Amino acid sequence: MGEDWAVRTLLAGMAGRNGHPAVVALSDAERECCSYAELARRAQALASGLRAAGAQPGERAVLIGPNGIDWITVYLGLMAAGLIAVPLDHLSQAGEIERIVQAAPPRWVFASADHLDALRRIVPSVCIRLIGSDEGAGVADWRTLLAADPAELPEVDATAPAVLLQTSGTTGPPKLFYLTARHLGANVVPLAAAGLAKSDDRLVLPLPLHHIYPQVIGLLTALTVGATIVLPAAVTGPALVSALRAERATGVIGVPRLYEALLEGLEDAIGRRSRLVRKLYGLALSAATAARRRFGWSIGGVLFGRVRRRLSPDLRLLVSGGARLDPAVAWRLAALGFDVRSGYGLAETASTHTANVPGRDRIGSEGQPFQGGEVRIDEPDADGIGEVLLRGPNVFDGYLDAERTGEAFTADGWFRTGDLGRLDAGFLTVTGRVKETIVLGGGKKVSPEDLEKLYARSPFIAELAILESAGRLVGLVRVDAAAVAAEGFTHADGTVRVALADAARTLPSYQHLAGFALVREPLPRTRLGKVRRFLLPELYRRARAGIATAPARPVAAPEALIREPRAAAAWRLLQERYATRLTGVDDFLALDLGVDSLEWINLSLELERRLGIDLTATSLGGIVSVRGLLDAVGRAPAGARIAPAEAGPWLRPAPPWQRAVARLLRALNRLLVRALFQLRVDGLEHLPRRGPFVIACNHLSYLDAFVIAAALPSDVLRQAHWGAAERTLPAPTRLRWLYVALNIFPLEEAASAIGLAGARRALDGGEVMVLFPEAWRSPDGRLQPFLPGIGHIVAGTDIPIVPARLDGTFEALPRYRRWPRLVPLRLRFGPPLSPTELATRGQGETPAQRIADGLHRAVAALEAGSGESKDD
To answer: DSSP secondary-structure letter at 174?
Structure first.
């Protein structure tokens, strides 16, 4: 199948479609359209001109540049002339281009202007022609090769190399290999015959054309059936949606990540509607899914017409390739009424080998071979999973490296894909990669790609990759800094730790992550979105060691943002103070520059000293980015001192009737906690009877404060003040009088100066502070690192700190439960320690960090099971 297919015959068919649009290229400035007849004429003229210029069949021609009509024309012209097209990634660096060119020297080069300097150095003796709309000094445009009177094109050997490609490089350095016209045609011809797309379709193609998947599916197959190819102005979401709407697209040739993003965009829009609309959407989606699963009925087009029109009124076909489409995503898209088509293949199989084609499809699988190919599972395990082996007319003949070729094929000629999968009634399901599968102690096997989807569900995680380190699973995490800041959190590591532990709650223990490292730069991926896993171990090592991975680059601020002199002075201060961290105005102060609670105060004082402005602690608490800080500085009133951090009305004395209500609630809490949870308290003799002192306890549950309040002696309880995140307090504005009566005040990360000032004010007044230095409720019951805020509160004083440890509240009410279990609880107090003693025991760069670390050690040492029970 495909033996008679050739670009020469493709061009002949294209010429017969006359003025029907073949390619529409969109840009910010214009819309360029090329008809089938014109595209065929240009490609034939180029092929004829190349032959006239002395080009010989089998010569290699590099093609590098952005998607466009020029790129497509040159690609078709090269293969029509019998040359070997060598398409390279437009984003390739000079070193990567040089590696490929040295392995397979070209005779011709067609390149966009931004690659000319590098190519002149790499291939100084090769004829270079310019493609694209830019001008290149001293380089002739590719159109100078067009023959004025194209001659009849000779036939090209279908078994001769037509295109030189490289593997994606997810598990190691890319490997080079050839595909012939026969390999390409083995997929193009049956896909065109399957009826997935027709001549009246308008297919948006946002993928880089140097990849074989968009070449075969999005270009050659689309041109074979006569569809119109739409090239969006960019691969961003807005540009893609604009192309879909402007061209009334009927289909998209994409990758799974693209469809996941589209689906998230649609569902986010629904999420912003009323509760009734959200409920109706969920019910309709469930009904449409059930109808499709049970009866094969597609009712989503009727139920979700308005939702789908947000993308394009005519959009029906979604083709996915390049990676495995998550079955859950496929089912949701199908329930919306889209015709979802996915398949499986590699570059070595001309992009595809199995597919879900009309009449032979199963959502959630990769389909069946459709071109006379075969699939075999090698050495399947008890679940039928083994390495996927392929054989068929589309499978390549081997790599340029003969040794690699020998490793890639079995003795009887089957291609080893390196993928794991199983067969069910002829339908293939891919479950992972052989080389990517992590084998742990005891023989447990883990597919990192599947786990990554589970762990990365948190809105605070932008990207996550899982790897093995020292025999354990670990993760590389890029934080969604905007999402973290929007919730008022400033400690990215704590946010991520809780998110990962929440995700691990339903997983077996061997799939839990033993650690993670944060990275600022996007994870290394191929252009189709696959993680380049062989690069992860070194990236993880560097991240754990604190070695920057981002390249040094000049830091500049937008002129409009620093036009105001004080904003410009503040920018210079930030450049001085955070020279090794600052990368731009969109940096987050806490996550990127490390501005913690004490640094907020130091920074504000320095701004006051230099600029003489008035920035209250409250206003600083609402600023999360450099941009926000510069804007606030530019708008701040001049001449006044920065107002000292105050806890405002939260610490005012409560009137007698409110104090009476508080006494009643404390007594009721004591009665309920002790009766329901069989509370046992050890070490009460360690508590001083009068303040000032601090009680610092581990944080397991929302029950913690209630349990401590039920355990404290009455005279201590009356003096106790409690720091709490204001966002966790029910109706904090309406119930402020009650919180004041109960001595509760806000202790927020984003407005930490207020919390620190409130705590110091209470202690200076001889009161008692109850603090949870972890800030977060533990996601797994284990003790978490202590934040340095408690060290800032007591540093430079002789205020004693009483370490305390709770056991049982995590089992009673973990963060994922709504109602508590009635289980026995235990609270143990240790001997009070001075800040000096704690700093001596702890480690850290600053006194506050050493105090927090020393306190962490003291709480960890309060193991359950020792000590005598005492009551007050």
So the answer is: -
CA angle (697 as vertex; 702, 861 as ends), nearest 5 = 130
Encoded tokens for 485: 């800041």
What is the bridge-based pairing of β-strands 768-771 and 176-180? unpaired
Distance of CA 382 to the CA centre of its chain: 34
- The 3-state secondary structure of 661-697 reads HHHHHHHHHHHHHHHHHCCEEECHHHCCCCCCEEEEE
Q: According to the model, what pLDDT value does residue 816 have?
A: 78
The amino acid occupying position 569 is A
pTM of this prediction? 0.70
Phi, psi of 764 (to 5 degrees): -65, -25
Cβ atoms of 810 and 703 within 8 Å: the answer is: no
**Beta partners for residue 67, in sequence order:** none
Q: For the chain, how many residues are written?
A: 872
Q: Pick from 763, 768, 785: which is nearest to 688 by CA?
A: 768
Q: How far is CA 118 from the centre of its chain?
A: 32
Contact indicator for 809, 704 with CB cutoff of 8 Å: yes
Give 526-570 as a 3 state SS string.
CCCCCECHHHHHHHHHHHHHCCCCCCCCCCCCCCCCCCCHHHHHH
Give the whole-angstrom CA distance, residue 673 versus residue 822: 10
Cα-based distances in Å from 576 to 296, 548, 560, 573 = 65, 19, 21, 5
Angle between helices 7-15 and 69-80 (to 10 degrees): 120
Backbone angles phi, psi at 403, to 5 degrees: -65, -40
* Spatial CB neighbours of 476, under 8 Å, sequence gap ≥ 6: 464, 465, 466, 467, 516, 517, 519, 523, 536, 539, 540, 543
Beta partners for 177? Answer: 165, 399
Model pLDDT for residues 307-348, shown as the tens digit of each residue? 888 788 899 999 999 888 989 999 999 999 999 999 999 999
DSSP assignment letter at 141 = B
CB atoms within 10 A of CB 498: 22
Q: What angle do CA 234, 238, 242 make, to 5 degrees?
A: 85
- What residues are paired with 248 via a beta bridge? none
Q: Is the dihedral of CA 565, 566, 568, 573 positive or negative?
A: positive
Q: Residue ranges of the chain with pLDDT lower than 70?
A: 1-3, 134-137, 169-172, 441-443, 485, 488-491, 546-555, 590-591, 594, 596-602, 604-605, 613-622, 624, 637-651, 725-733, 746-758, 775, 864-872
The one-letter code for the residue type at 419 is: D
CA–CA dist 500, 33 (Å, integer): 49
What whole-number distance in Å separates Cα of residue 225 and Cα of residue 216?
12
pLDDT digits (tens, 9 = 90+) for 154-207: 888 999 999 999 987 666 678 899 999 999 999 999 999 999 999 999 999 999
Positive/negative CA dihedral, 441, 442, 443, 446: negative
